[in-house]
Amino acid sequence: MSAMPPKNRPVGVSRLETLLIDQSVKGRRAMRVPEAPVAQPIDRLIPAKFLRQRKPRLPEVTEFQVVRHFTRLSTLNYSIDANFYPLGSCTMKYNPKVNDAMANLPGFRQAHPLAPESTVQGLLEAMYNLEQWLVKMSGFAHFTLHPAAGAHGEFTGILVAQAYHRAKGRLNKTKVIVPDSAHGTNPASAALAHLTVVTVKSQANGHIDMADFRAKLDDDVALVMLTLPNTLGLFEEEIEAITRESHAKGALVYLDGANFNALAGLIRPGDLGFDICHINLHKTFSTPHGGGGPGAGPVGVTKELEPFLPVPRVVKDGDTYRVRDSKHHYPQSIGQLRSFFGNTGILIRAYTYMLSLGEDGVKEMSRRAIINANYVRVRLKDVFHAVSNEPCMHEAVFSGTPILEHGVKTLDLAKRLLDYGYYAPTIYFPLIVPEALMIEPTETETPETLEAFCATVEEIVREIKDNPAVVKEAPHTTPVRRLDEVKAAREPMLRWTTANEPAVYGGRSTERAARA
Predict the structure, then answer these.
(1) Are residues 375 and 463 in the same domain?
(2) What is d(CA 392, CA 371) in angstroms, rounded to the nearest whole number?
(3) Among 50, 72, 94, which residue terminates a domain?
(4) Which of 54, 266, 269, 270 is deepest in the core (most CB within 10 A)?
(5) Which of 237, 198, 234, 233 minimizes the C-alpha distance to 218?
(6) Residue 114, in any domain of the structure
(7) CATH number at residue 466
(8) Do 370 and 468 share a domain, yes or no?
């Protein structure tokens, strides 16, 4: 194997991707596949324009070389099983292996979505029981398990609110109030439902500006969308006043439950006056979601809103579980929002997690999440600017402005953390915090792990003061160095290419891109 990649490495292809080509020796084979006999020439079966014009440049290697190559590549994937994610939000906390084992039981894994009710009673019972657990923990009357993730849950909740107002004849309800600290999906979901978004600003301490809220709360507001705890990790102290005053104007109040892992078992949103809430099972209840999916964002509602929930729904009829549709049972339903019952594999994992912990375990989960976040907040408060001096809940948010004087940004610090074996935390969110750094350790990390992480952050800050260049040029040890993120966004490389053909960026070849 050559020590360095060949000079004719394909454009945009890393050294790791060329290792097999480097090891190629003419005539080596991992296996030999006999040619399949065909009744007529291949160009008669497939139009010539779809056939390759030149042979692919494939490595000629042994089976053992292939196995070693891909095993080596697999170790480069960052995993919660190997390292700490300071970014629990999406969710990167530990996913117990028993969850996977239960979701892979044949009765769950092999169930066909169109199977007769009588053949999937176990699956329907699990879905029904999961809804009852969510009802008990949240204080809402009913849930739908359909939504595929948080944003889908938001959209579902907004459609339910719209259907409710229409049924009441409140056609003037066209506004949604959203704090400026909200997740970006809140205004996006409202806009998708053709509602007007009204932004309420936050105070310097991170809480909602009640004067601004009251000035913008009028009779046209259909929904007030809040995150609790908010995205700065703070509990809104005026929450009961907000729900009470919203209801007085005929508005419903929606809880973005993405941060429910600071509330589960401790506070029931339904008791605080919320009308609708989505809960990210792929965060709070320990199911995998990193990398964009799969996920689940069940939506809970008060009894008054239950008729508008999407269908189909699982109900218990004596000792039998049945699937109900809107045509005969829920005429006011907003309809079906996705295929079948939702991401059942994720739902089974969440249900397993709840059963494993029990009610007391769920409470302890939330308590530990709060304790861990406050450990980080106190530990790093002299390194960065904390957004608030009050205790946080599930996550600690800082401003990295102190390092700007050295010409280093929060982005640079995040990149340098990669060299120390840590995944980077969320940066530049919430948007209202300059040079934001959001750290959410979740309940599953030990004090020793958190201490090691905080000590590493302090070490990087010392590097910033003594030798800022080493941080600004990070990462140094990862297989792929720092990317041109602007170019990557504008000209994404959509497929791997060999030296014999032009690379393709954003659907354009390099030759066409150069001419453009």
Answers:
(1) yes
(2) 9
(3) 72
(4) 269
(5) 198
(6) no
(7) 3.90.1150.10
(8) yes
Distance CA 424, CA 83 (A): 11
Q: Residue 28: inside a domain, yes or no?
A: yes
Check whether residue 375 and residue 417 sit in a common domain: yes
Bond from prior residue into 441 cis (ω within 30 degrees of 0): no
Give the pLDDT confidence of 199-210 residue by residue, as tens digits: 999 999 999 999
Query: What number of other Cβ atoms are within 10 A of residue 414's Cβ?
Result: 23
Domain-terminating residue out of 53, 72, 91: 72
Question: Does residue 388 sit in helix, strand or coil?
Answer: coil
pLDDT of 505 over the 70 cut: no
Q: Which structural domain, as residue segments, surrounds residue 395?
A: 364-472
Report long-range pairs for 507-513 (Cβ below 8 Å, ≥24 apart).
510/11
Provide the β-strand partners of residue 398. Answer: 386, 437
Chain segment 391-422, per-residue pLDDT in tens: 999 999 999 999 999 999 999 999 999 999 99
Separation between Cα atoms, residue 261 and residue 279, nearest integer Å: 9
- The pLDDT value recorded for residue 507 is 47
Q: Are residues 399 and 453 in the same domain?
A: yes
**pLDDT (tens digit per residue) in 443-466:** 989 999 999 999 999 999 999 999
Instruction: Tell me the per-residue pLDDT of 355-383, one tens digit each, with 9 for 90 and over.
Output: 999 999 999 999 999 999 999 999 999 99
- Total of domains in the chain: 3
Give the other-Cβ count within 10 Å of 155's Cβ: 21
Mention every residue, 6+ apart, whose C-beta is less than 8 A from residue 298.
Answer: 131, 134, 143, 144, 145, 146, 147, 153, 278, 279, 281, 342
Q: Beta strands of 141-298 (E only): which ranges?
A: 142-144, 175-179, 196-200, 221-227, 252-257, 276-279
Closest CA to 162 of 370, 310, 367, 316: 310
Rounded CA separation 172/170 (Å): 5
pLDDT bucket at 42, cuts 50 / 70 / 90 = low
Same domain, 443 and 506: no
Q: Which two tokens stand for residue 316?
A: 């218990």
C-alpha to C-alpha distance for 139 and 179, rounded to whole angstroms: 24
pLDDT score at 49: 82
